[in-house]
Design brief:
Elements: E1 5-7, E2 13-15, E3 18-19, E4 26-27, H1 80-89, H2 100-103, H3 109-126, E5 131-136, H4 144-157, H5 166-185, H6 187-201, E6 211-215, H7 221-231, E7 237-241, E8 258-261, H8 264-273, E9 275-280, H9 285-299, E10 308-311, H10 313-319, H11 322-327, E11 340-342, H12 345-359
Parallel strand pairs: 5-6, 5-9, 6-7, 7-8, 9-10, 10-11
Antiparallel strand pairs: 1-2, 3-4
Helix pairs in contact: 3-8, 4-5, 6-7, 6-12
Length: about 375
Amino acid sequence: MIARSAIDESGHAARGTYRFPGDRRKISNMDETTDSAPDPEPRGGAERAFAPAPAETCVSGRREPLPWHRPKETEDDPLARDRVLAILQDPSYRLADEDVDFLARNDLRGLRLQLDYYKAELQLEQHGVEHTIVVFGSTRIAEPAAARRALRLLKAQSGEPPGTDPDKRAQDGRRIAIAERIQAKSHYYDVARELGQRIAQAGEGPADTRIMVMTGGGPGIMEAANRGAFDAGAKSIGLNIALPHEQYPNPYITPELCLRFHYFALRKLHFMMRARALVAFPGGYGTFDELFETLTLIQTRKINPVPVVLVGEAYWRRAFDVDFLVDEGVIAAEDRDLFWYAESAAEIWDGIVQWHRDNGTPLYPPGASGAAPVPE
């Protein structure tokens, strides 16, 4: 926040909250000033040549306050105090970088985009993050124990006493069917968790920051991948997005690497900038968004190709019928080769490692160190 100052009844500057002489009301946003330290004791004998004290190096360290260090006296103008208060409380007096309303203006969107980019970029650089494996999937796919518990609860709540509304029975039936489908997919949580462990243990071990787990920071599959890295003692990254409703990041992201974005576009940029692979587990709109954007960037060669792994072939063949798209002529036959299917964590990780080896871009080049820098 803006530094504040105080002026005591003698008119000298003092550290603290500014008050008018003789008044207990507060004015903020005044420059902070302090009384200077006492002059040091002279050194040497009486014959030591006189030397002036060094000039003050701190603007606020003056022995005598400057005229603007205190407001106009009320004896000269009884209304001066209220006028100064009105000035200090007006938004125009705020420093530009501390004026949230100013920064939120439509015509400053370009500046906000830069800030969204740079905060994450500098934080990732500071922690030595070189490359990532990006993991996406449904936030609704819970760990198996939680999925079983949710299903039991729904069944317990759907008891049918005499006279139950048939519409309610139908609605309960749909909810139970969905919960059963979620439970059937809950094993993917364990697969994502194991994948996070494998990534964290590769290279030189958990301290190696050349390849790190990166997720969208949410629950479900993303939680599982961050959790796997956490289990192995490694750092991992979560890129959250500001939404109009309350949300929480999953608890397994490294705190200093849980980054929150205002703009989806900048979040997407940071997903792809360091990505050495995208792993897509069964998911909904958010997963499809990241998947199809990545496939488009590879198809158009806006980025160098990276492995794209779809986990759960049965799910993806029904959710995304690539053969239909080829038959309809809206994509080329070769576009089917931009991804492959996998089922287990070993299949996923071994396939990514082999792809990069065959491509001449090994994930862990020989002779390179993976030690992370110590943040300042």
